[in-house]
User: What shape does this take?
Amino acid sequence: MPASPRLLLVEDDRRLCGMLERLLTVEGYLVTTEHDGQAGLHRVLTEEFDVLLLDRGLPRVEGLEVLAAMRRAGVTTPVLVLSALGNPSDRVEGLDAGAEDYLAKPFDIDELLARLRAARRRSVSVVGTLQVPGGRFDPAGFVVRTDAGESVTLSARESALLEEFARHPDQVYMRGQLLARVFSNADDEGVVDTYVHYLRRKLGKSVVRTVYGIGYTLGNRS
Assistant: This one.
Protein backbone atom coordinates (compact mmCIF):
# COMPACT_ATOMS: atom_id res chain seq x y z
CA MET A 1 0.00 0.00 0.00
CA PRO A 2 1.53 3.37 -1.01
CA ALA A 3 2.54 5.76 1.74
CA SER A 4 0.26 8.67 2.46
CA PRO A 5 1.47 11.93 0.87
CA ARG A 6 2.96 14.46 3.28
CA LEU A 7 1.41 17.92 3.07
CA LEU A 8 2.65 21.08 4.78
CA LEU A 9 -0.14 23.60 5.46
CA VAL A 10 1.02 27.13 6.32
CA GLU A 11 -2.01 29.24 7.26
CA ASP A 12 -2.38 31.85 10.02
CA ASP A 13 -6.19 31.67 10.18
CA ARG A 14 -6.40 28.96 12.83
CA ARG A 15 -10.08 28.21 12.24
CA LEU A 16 -9.51 27.71 8.51
CA CYS A 17 -6.32 25.80 9.24
CA GLY A 18 -8.15 23.39 11.53
CA MET A 19 -10.90 22.83 8.97
CA LEU A 20 -8.38 22.16 6.21
CA GLU A 21 -6.32 19.87 8.39
CA ARG A 22 -9.38 17.72 9.17
CA LEU A 23 -10.48 17.67 5.54
CA LEU A 24 -7.07 16.81 4.15
CA THR A 25 -6.50 14.10 6.75
CA VAL A 26 -9.76 12.46 5.70
CA GLU A 27 -8.51 12.67 2.08
CA GLY A 28 -5.44 10.64 3.04
CA TYR A 29 -2.78 13.31 3.55
CA LEU A 30 -0.35 13.36 6.46
CA VAL A 31 -0.77 17.02 7.41
CA THR A 32 1.76 19.20 9.21
CA THR A 33 0.61 22.72 10.08
CA GLU A 34 2.40 25.98 10.78
CA HIS A 35 0.88 29.40 11.42
CA ASP A 36 3.60 31.83 10.39
CA GLY A 37 5.98 32.14 7.47
CA GLN A 38 9.20 31.73 9.41
CA ALA A 39 8.11 28.43 10.94
CA GLY A 40 6.77 27.25 7.60
CA LEU A 41 10.03 28.07 5.84
CA HIS A 42 12.03 26.22 8.49
CA ARG A 43 9.81 23.16 8.05
CA VAL A 44 10.08 23.05 4.27
CA LEU A 45 13.86 23.52 4.37
CA THR A 46 14.45 20.79 6.95
CA GLU A 47 11.81 18.17 6.13
CA GLU A 48 10.51 16.52 2.97
CA PHE A 49 6.93 17.05 1.83
CA ASP A 50 4.98 15.97 -1.23
CA VAL A 51 3.05 19.22 -1.53
CA LEU A 52 2.81 22.60 0.20
CA LEU A 53 -0.42 24.57 0.72
CA LEU A 54 0.70 28.14 1.41
CA ASP A 55 -1.17 31.28 2.48
CA ARG A 56 0.18 34.66 1.38
CA GLY A 57 -0.70 37.00 4.25
CA LEU A 58 1.42 35.30 6.89
CA PRO A 59 3.00 36.89 9.96
CA ARG A 60 6.81 37.13 10.33
CA VAL A 61 7.58 36.12 6.71
CA GLU A 62 5.10 36.77 3.87
CA GLY A 63 4.00 33.73 1.87
CA LEU A 64 5.67 34.65 -1.42
CA GLU A 65 8.91 35.37 0.44
CA VAL A 66 8.70 31.83 1.84
CA LEU A 67 8.17 30.52 -1.68
CA ALA A 68 11.06 32.50 -3.15
CA ALA A 69 13.41 31.43 -0.35
CA MET A 70 12.62 27.73 -0.75
CA ARG A 71 13.11 27.90 -4.52
CA ARG A 72 16.46 29.66 -4.06
CA ALA A 73 17.44 26.83 -1.71
CA GLY A 74 16.63 24.27 -4.41
CA VAL A 75 13.45 22.91 -2.83
CA THR A 76 11.19 21.72 -5.66
CA THR A 77 8.16 20.67 -3.57
CA PRO A 78 5.04 21.64 -5.54
CA VAL A 79 3.25 24.63 -4.02
CA LEU A 80 -0.40 25.66 -4.18
CA VAL A 81 -0.83 29.23 -2.97
CA LEU A 82 -4.15 29.85 -1.20
CA SER A 83 -4.88 33.55 -0.76
CA ALA A 84 -7.53 36.23 -0.40
CA LEU A 85 -5.51 38.20 -2.98
CA GLY A 86 -7.20 36.94 -6.12
CA ASN A 87 -6.72 39.61 -8.79
CA PRO A 88 -4.99 38.48 -12.02
CA SER A 89 -1.89 40.47 -11.08
CA ASP A 90 -1.78 38.69 -7.70
CA ARG A 91 -2.04 35.28 -9.36
CA VAL A 92 0.68 36.13 -11.86
CA GLU A 93 2.92 37.32 -9.02
CA GLY A 94 2.43 34.05 -7.15
CA LEU A 95 3.06 31.87 -10.18
CA ASP A 96 6.14 33.84 -11.17
CA ALA A 97 7.48 33.43 -7.63
CA GLY A 98 7.56 29.66 -8.19
CA ALA A 99 4.10 28.31 -7.33
CA GLU A 100 2.63 25.49 -9.38
CA ASP A 101 -0.89 26.83 -8.84
CA TYR A 102 -2.80 29.66 -7.17
CA LEU A 103 -6.31 29.51 -5.73
CA ALA A 104 -8.19 32.54 -4.41
CA LYS A 105 -10.28 32.56 -1.23
CA PRO A 106 -13.11 31.82 -0.83
CA PHE A 107 -12.59 28.54 -2.64
CA ASP A 108 -14.50 25.40 -3.55
CA ILE A 109 -13.35 22.35 -1.58
CA ASP A 110 -13.54 19.97 -4.54
CA GLU A 111 -11.52 22.36 -6.68
CA LEU A 112 -8.88 22.68 -3.96
CA LEU A 113 -8.54 18.90 -3.72
CA ALA A 114 -8.35 18.55 -7.51
CA ARG A 115 -5.66 21.21 -7.74
CA LEU A 116 -3.60 19.50 -5.04
CA ARG A 117 -3.84 16.21 -6.94
CA ALA A 118 -2.80 17.93 -10.16
CA ALA A 119 0.18 19.60 -8.49
CA ARG A 120 1.37 16.26 -7.14
CA ARG A 121 0.90 14.48 -10.49
CA ARG A 122 2.89 17.17 -12.23
CA SER A 123 5.72 16.87 -9.72
CA VAL A 124 5.89 13.08 -9.98
CA SER A 125 5.74 13.02 -13.78
CA VAL A 126 8.58 15.47 -14.42
CA VAL A 127 11.74 13.39 -14.84
CA GLY A 128 14.98 14.23 -16.65
CA THR A 129 15.62 16.95 -19.17
CA LEU A 130 14.00 17.85 -22.47
CA GLN A 131 15.55 19.06 -25.70
CA VAL A 132 14.62 22.59 -26.71
CA PRO A 133 16.07 24.93 -29.33
CA GLY A 134 19.58 25.82 -28.25
CA GLY A 135 19.88 23.59 -25.21
CA ARG A 136 18.39 21.21 -22.65
CA PHE A 137 15.50 22.09 -20.36
CA ASP A 138 15.21 20.88 -16.76
CA PRO A 139 11.50 21.26 -15.87
CA ALA A 140 12.02 20.37 -12.22
CA GLY A 141 14.62 23.08 -11.74
CA PHE A 142 13.03 25.70 -14.05
CA VAL A 143 16.39 25.96 -15.86
CA VAL A 144 17.52 25.82 -19.49
CA ARG A 145 21.16 24.89 -19.97
CA THR A 146 22.16 26.30 -23.32
CA ASP A 147 24.55 24.75 -25.82
CA ALA A 148 26.86 27.68 -25.04
CA GLY A 149 27.13 26.51 -21.43
CA GLU A 150 24.90 29.15 -19.84
CA SER A 151 22.04 28.50 -17.38
CA VAL A 152 18.83 30.46 -17.87
CA THR A 153 16.33 30.43 -15.00
CA LEU A 154 12.62 30.55 -15.83
CA SER A 155 9.62 31.45 -13.73
CA ALA A 156 7.21 28.65 -12.86
CA ARG A 157 4.73 29.78 -15.51
CA GLU A 158 7.41 30.21 -18.18
CA SER A 159 8.66 26.74 -17.30
CA ALA A 160 5.18 25.23 -17.56
CA LEU A 161 4.67 26.76 -21.00
CA LEU A 162 8.04 25.61 -22.32
CA GLU A 163 7.46 22.13 -20.90
CA GLU A 164 4.14 21.89 -22.75
CA PHE A 165 5.88 22.75 -26.02
CA ALA A 166 8.89 20.51 -25.35
CA ARG A 167 6.85 17.42 -24.46
CA HIS A 168 4.82 17.78 -27.68
CA PRO A 169 7.36 19.25 -30.12
CA ASP A 170 5.36 18.48 -33.26
CA GLN A 171 2.05 19.86 -32.04
CA VAL A 172 0.77 23.24 -33.14
CA TYR A 173 -1.25 24.83 -30.35
CA MET A 174 -4.07 27.31 -30.64
CA ARG A 175 -4.00 29.99 -27.97
CA GLY A 176 -7.14 28.57 -26.37
CA GLN A 177 -5.49 25.17 -25.97
CA LEU A 178 -2.48 26.69 -24.21
CA LEU A 179 -4.76 28.80 -22.04
CA ALA A 180 -6.55 25.65 -20.84
CA ARG A 181 -3.42 23.51 -20.40
CA VAL A 182 -1.01 26.01 -18.87
CA PHE A 183 -2.91 29.10 -17.77
CA SER A 184 -5.94 27.60 -16.05
CA ASN A 185 -6.39 30.61 -13.76
CA ALA A 186 -6.52 33.10 -16.65
CA ASP A 187 -9.39 33.94 -18.98
CA ASP A 188 -7.61 36.15 -21.52
CA GLU A 189 -5.74 34.51 -24.41
CA GLY A 190 -3.41 37.51 -24.42
CA VAL A 191 -1.57 35.95 -21.46
CA VAL A 192 -0.32 33.25 -23.86
CA ASP A 193 1.26 35.86 -26.13
CA THR A 194 2.80 37.58 -23.10
CA TYR A 195 4.54 34.44 -21.88
CA VAL A 196 5.68 33.45 -25.35
CA HIS A 197 7.31 36.91 -25.45
CA TYR A 198 8.96 36.24 -22.07
CA LEU A 199 10.39 32.91 -23.31
CA ARG A 200 11.72 34.50 -26.48
CA ARG A 201 13.27 37.34 -24.52
CA LYS A 202 15.15 34.88 -22.29
CA LEU A 203 15.94 32.11 -24.78
CA GLY A 204 15.89 33.74 -28.20
CA LYS A 205 13.19 34.30 -30.78
CA SER A 206 13.56 30.83 -32.27
CA VAL A 207 12.53 28.94 -29.11
CA VAL A 208 8.83 29.22 -30.03
CA ARG A 209 7.65 29.43 -33.64
CA THR A 210 4.51 31.30 -34.65
CA VAL A 211 2.24 29.40 -37.03
CA TYR A 212 0.27 32.24 -38.55
CA GLY A 213 -3.48 31.85 -38.42
CA ILE A 214 -3.23 29.00 -35.89
CA GLY A 215 -0.97 29.65 -32.90
CA TYR A 216 2.40 28.42 -31.65
CA THR A 217 4.71 25.40 -31.70
CA LEU A 218 8.19 24.58 -30.45
CA GLY A 219 10.93 26.11 -32.59
CA ASN A 220 13.48 24.22 -34.62
CA ARG A 221 15.60 22.09 -32.26
CA SER A 222 18.39 21.33 -34.72
Summary: The two ends are 45 Å apart (CA to CA). The chain has a mean pLDDT of 88. The first strand starts at residue 6 and ends at 10.
